[in-house]
Amino acid sequence: MNTLFRFFILCFFVVVKLQAQITICSWNIENIGKSKSDEDINFIANTVRNYDVVAIQEVVAGYGGVQAIAKLADELNRKGARWDYTVSNPTTSSSYKTERYAFLWKTHRVKIKKTPWLEEKYKLEIDREPFYATFMAYGKEFTLVNFHAITKEKQPEREIKYFKFLPQLYPDLNLIFLGDFNCPQSHTVFNPLKSMGFDSVFKNQKTSLKKSCSNDTCLASEFDNIWYDTNKIEVLDTRAIKFYESFESLEKARSISDHIPIMTVINFISNRR
Description:
By secondary structure, the chain is an alpha+beta fold. The protein has helices at residues 2-20, 38-48, 65-77, 157-160, 166-169, 191-195, 250-253; strands at 22-32, 53-59, 83-87, 100-106, 111-118, 131-137, 140-148, 175-180, 198-200, 209-214, 217-219, 224-229, 233-240, 262-268.
């Protein structure tokens, strides 16, 4: 009887741990707006439908951007789960490169807390100030910081260096930085975050698409990543989603985006927020 009881207890905790896992996806979907067809939106929905929270960069700031995210949410709602979404205001620091960010999430898996916001503190130093949203899952809060850095030619490390101040600015938040950093995780600009206990989900993983494949190599640069606090979160799985393999040519795949989505499965470390 004691052995059977212990077996059921073990099964119970295994099930609880599995249920407490959250899957997070990040994707720079190039110029997602009115240029995306219904077929494109359906493909994007099928690509992200199995994740719990999806962060999107490069939502068109003008007409069409918010509408495209609404269409994506509607398409996801037709695929077996209830989804909600939020879209940021246009970023303010650069009128030429302004864009929006978006989050979509399964409402039975996570709940949004507070009102999402664009970062005000460093909006003069960061062209596209990051977009924050705090979620609750299984009694644990986590805050996703959605970010799209300036291009490599403009030295994105000039912006990323301010991220070392954000954990101190929001000491009560479990921050997860994700998006397109236009910079590899090995760059020294990330060292201050690493010294605080943050780590990147991906190492040496290229995420941007080439113009054409060469020797079966279709990915160009290590730009997209997810940074998490190792004191609060453990990473259980990661995946770089090579969506372009569903297309007959890289040119057609690039009509969806010039970046691939990335995902991770996380679990919250006990006794931590």
